[in-house]
Amino acid sequence: HQGAGSTIDVVKDLKERGVSVLGVETTSRSEKLWSADLPQPLALVFGNELVGVDASVLQECDGLVSVPTYGMKNSLNIATCTSVLIW
């Protein structure tokens, strides 16, 4: 096991290895999960439940996807969101 310097370093390294990287975040640029192209191989970047994915990391991602929710909340907790995306 080897640690990485930062999330952005990992994203850059994955892209250099030919892995597509999608940030999972609710933004004006995000594509709804069910209409997004999910290339293979694929890495997903999830953010902190309070502040999300850092803006510099989002800029480095190949694209952004969101899991739309309805009602008062505009996001799911990280465990639920991850489950939806992996399923």
Compact overview of the structure:
By secondary structure, this protein is α/β, with parallel strands linked by helices.
Which keywords apply here?
87 residues; alpha/beta; four-stranded parallel sheet; 4 strands
Question: Widest sheet: strand order?
Answer: 2-4-1-3
Terminal CA distance reads: 27 Å
DSSP helix count? 3
**Which structural class matches the secondary elements?**
alpha/beta
Biggest sheet character: 4 strands, parallel
Radius of gyration: 13 Å
Strand content: 15-25%
Shape: globular
Mean pLDDT over the residues? 87
Taken in chain order, the helices and strands follow as HEEEHEH
| Total beta strand runs | 4
Low-pLDDT segments, ≥5 res: none
What is the helical fraction, as a range of percent? 25-40%
Helix and strand arrangement:
Layout: H1 7-16, E1 20-24, E2 31-32, E3 42-46, H2 55-60, E4 63-66, H3 78-86
Parallel strand pairs: 1-3, 1-4, 2-4
Structure, explained:
- By secondary structure, the chain is an alpha/beta fold.
- It is about 30% helix and about 20% strand.
- It has three helices and four strands, in the order αβββαβα.
- The protein has a four-stranded parallel β-sheet.
- The longest helix is centred in the N-terminal third of the chain and has 10 residues, at about 5-15.
- The N and C termini lie far apart (about 25 Å).
